[in-house]
Input
Amino acid sequence: MNGEFVLVALILIGMLGRSPIITTAACVLLIVKLIHLERFLPSIERRGLEIGLLFLTLAVLVPFASGRVQVKDVINAFTSWTGWVALMGGAVATYMNAKGLEMLKFDPQLIVGLVIGSIIGIVTLRGIPVGPLMAAGITALILKLAQMLAGK
Output
């Protein structure tokens, strides 16, 4: 019953915060639990991130498929300073994602804070939850900085 209570609370938080993603996700999981399909929860947990990233990547690549991004745009990514900054941003983001994944393997209970922090960011800052790995990567960076400042 505890899981259902948390999901209902997330539905309410999502509705109050005008976050259809949180509301829909919590509704889908509540339905899965209420119609006794809990056996699919491990699969959703294991493959949900991959499926979500697949659709996110599809959405990002649509401009290439539709022809809105031309070869000149790709060349511009390598010849302009903003293109170089974007290339560095992509490289740094993927590196941070890897560090976040590494941190979660060693300290999996951090996922609770990441999820609650993401919900707070969605509801109060109108953020978009693109993935726990980036949140974990930023957390790993903040923890590393805190350790350096503390002299550890």
